[in-house]
Specification:
Length: 278
Amino acid sequence: MSSRSSSLHAVESARVIILLAGMMLASLGLVVRLWQEQIVKAASYRTSLERQSVRRVRLPAVRGVILDRNGACLARNRPSYCVAVYVEELRKPGRLDKTVDEIERVLDHLSAVLELPRETDREDVRTHLRKRMPIPLLAWRNIPRDALARWAERGVVEPGVDIYVEPVREYPQGDTLGHVLGHVGRADPPTGEGDFHYYVPEMEGKGGVERARNDLLAGEPGGRLIRVDASGFRHDVIAERLPREGATISLTIDIDYQRAAESALAGDRAAAVVMDPR
């Protein structure tokens, strides 16, 4: 009997030793796996996280000025005052519709204060949140001076709302020389620049000198790196490269002679040449 008990005890001991060895090997394997995941692959995970949480925004440059031969301004930029809503500051926990409701409330309040009808509806807000969440929503563009005055007088303090200035092209000489200067329009998002996720609207030449010398007038765009959270809301700005302003172009045209020629030939199909016979 004692021989049999000893044999059973030896078998049980062997089983326990094997079980403990298996557990130790499993624990060692788990430790090795954790080391690989947390140490060896940490750099690749960090890179992947940055790619998922960092967005690149293309910033347009201020367009260059066009002058006549004597320095008279033919084309320039004027400031257009816009009301910008920074949606990340109005974010509400829960479903996206709660954030939409909050933005709607703010827009209705601003509409009453500024005495301006709304330019964006609920669907515009939802579209912005789906496609352009990390950049400001421009709720009003080119607001009049009296609305700006009401903003200043009433001391509007609304979280997530500020005045944003964007340049608008203007031609101080009116229609004079319009066929030569051409005009500008909103540029299409550039192709072949996959480094940028979002584009702030910018101008490009659509005719005349504005189009022919767009490469000089447009300047060099800048960029901004922003970090977003898992929902896509902007968290903070990581880095920024400022745009380079467009060049100033001087034409050989004299605006006074041009205006006189256009006045003299008004209504006729003709051409005029101004020469110095000396």
